[in-house]
Amino acid sequence: MNARTEPADPKTDAIARPPIIRELLLVAGLFLVYKAGRLLAAGHTAEAFRNAHHVWDLERALRLPSEGGVQSVLLHGEFAVHLANTYYVSVHFPATAAFLVWLYLRRPRHYVWARRALAALTAAALVLHLAFPLAPPRMLAATGLVDTGRLYGPSVYGSPETDQMSNQFAAMPSLHFGWALMLAIGLIVLGRSRWRWLWLLHPLVTLLVIVGTANHFWLDALVASALLGGALALIRPPRGAARTVPRTAGNAVPAEQPVLVAAAR
C-alpha cells in the first residue's frame, strides 16, 4: 500500500497540546516528589558504601573498564576537568527542559510521549534509589578516584553530612545519562536528516563526564538504559510525523503546507 498524504488539520496540534498551566504544575509536582523521595533515601550511609563496594567488585568481575581510565584523561589538563565538571553541573536540567519545551511547542503529540517516558524513568529511578542506596565512586577509597568537582570546581554538591538539597547516595541509576539518552532518542525519532544520529553524542559525552568526574559507575548508566528501554517498550511514540513535502513533478501539494504521512500497513 502506498503512503498517502493529506492536508494537515490546523487544529490537530492545538487539540494534542496539553494545557500549559497543567503541564507546568505536573512537571513541578513530579520534580518536588522526586526531590523529596531522594531526601527520604538519605541517611543510609553504611548501606550505601557497602553497595558501592559490591558494585565496584561486580564491575571488576564483569571485566568492565576502570572508571579511572576516563578520569586519568581528564586530569591531564585542568581545562578538560573543569569543562567536564561544568558540563555535569550545567547541562543536565537545561538540556532536558529545552527538549521538552521544544516538543511542547513544535511536536505536542511527541511531547506527551517523551514526558511520560521521562516520568516513568524517573519514578523507577526513585524506587531504586530507595531500595538500593549507593555511594558514588568519588567517595569510595577503593576506586582510587578523586572528587573532581571539589578539587577543580564547579561542584553541585556540598559535604554529604551537611548537604540538605540532594541525596548523594542515589548514584544508581544515573538520571544524567538516562535523560540524555531519552533526549537523543526523541530527536532521532523526530528527525529526517542523516545527521540526526549525531544527537547520540549528547549521551556519549554525558557518560564520559559522569564517569570521569567519579559521580557514577558504568553500571549506573547501564541500569538507566535498561529502565528507559522498559519505559519505551510500554510507552510507544505516536504514529506518523508532521513534515513538509517539497513541490515535485506531479505533486500538487504546496511546499509550505504540512502533511501527515501515514505509514503503510
Topology:
Blueprint: E1 4-7, H1 11-16, H2 20-40, H3 45-61, H4 67-74, H5 78-90, H6 92-106, H7 108-131, H8 148-152, H9 175-190, H10 201-212, H11 218-234, E2 242-244, E3 258-262
Antiparallel strand pairs: 1-3, 2-3
Helix pairs in contact: 2-7, 5-10, 6-7, 6-9, 7-9, 7-11, 9-10, 9-11
Features:
265 residues; mainly alpha; three-stranded antiparallel β-sheet; globular; disordered N terminus
Q: What would a concise description of this structure say?
A:
With 265 residues, this protein is mainly alpha-helical. It is built from 11 helices and 3 strands. The protein has helices spanning 11-16, 20-40, 45-61, 67-74, 78-90, 92-106, 108-131, 148-152, 175-190, 201-212, 218-234; strands at 4-7, 242-244, 258-262.
Architecture overview:
The protein has helices at 11-16, 20-40, 45-61, 67-74, 78-90, 92-106, 108-131, 148-152, 175-190, 201-212, 218-234, and strands spanning 4-7, 242-244, 258-262. It is mainly α and 265 residues long. A three-stranded antiparallel beta sheet has the order 1-3-2, with no helix packed on it. α6 (92-106) packs antiparallel against α7 and α6 (92-106) runs parallel beside α9 (175-190). The N and C termini lie close together (7 Å). Mean pLDDT is 82; it is low at 1-12 and 241-265.
